[in-house]
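Lab notebook, bench 4. The sequencing result for the construct came back, and we need a structural model before the next group meeting so we can plan mutations. Quick request posted to the team channel:

Model the 3D structure of this chain.
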Amino acid sequence: MVNRKRPVLVCAVIAICSLGTVVPSAQAASCAATYTVKSGDSWWRIAEKNNTNLRKVLTLNKAKKSTRLLVGSTVCVPVPAQVAPPAQKFTRAEVVQIIREVWPDELEERALAIAQRESKLRPDAISGSKCCYGLFQIYYRWHKTWLPIVSVNSASDLLNPRLNAIAAYRMYQRNNGWGPWE
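Done. Here's the predicted structure in C-alpha cell form:
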C-alpha cells in the first residue's frame, strides 16, 4: 500500500516543479497582449522587443528571471501604449525652420541631414518597433528619466517637432557629439 502512494506523490511533485520552470502557453491565453518565444529570447530580450521593462514582463507571467522559456511558448506582455499623433500638421518648410531655430548655426545642417535620414523630416514618425519617436527618432524609454528637463513627459510629446528638436539638441550636448546618430 505504501508503494502505490509513493509513485503518485513523485509524479505530483514533478508536475509542480515543471510548472515553476516553464511558462505554459495556456497562461498567456488570458492576456491582453502576447508574445511568442523565439530562439535566443530571454525575459530581458522579450521586454526590450515589447518596449517595456523586465519587471513588468515577469510580473505579468508570475515568473522569475530563472523561469525557463521554451521556443513557441506564448507569454504575456503589456499592451503597447497608444501614442496619439499630434493635432497640428507641419509642412516640411516649417519643420526645417524649427530645426534651424533650435540648433546652433554651425550644427543645423548636420541636424537637418540626421532628421532627414531618421524620419524624412516627418514629426509624426514612429519606428516599426514603436520605441523611437519624431524627427530625430528619440528612444523614449531609454531617455525618459531626463527628458522632462526639456518638457518631454511622454512619448507623444516627442511628436511635437519643436520638443523633439530641443530634446535632440540636448542629447547632442549630453553626449558631447552626435553619438546616438553616428
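The helical segments are 2-21, 25-28, 43-49, 54-60, 92-102, 105-119, 140-143, 161-174.
Will bring this to the meeting.
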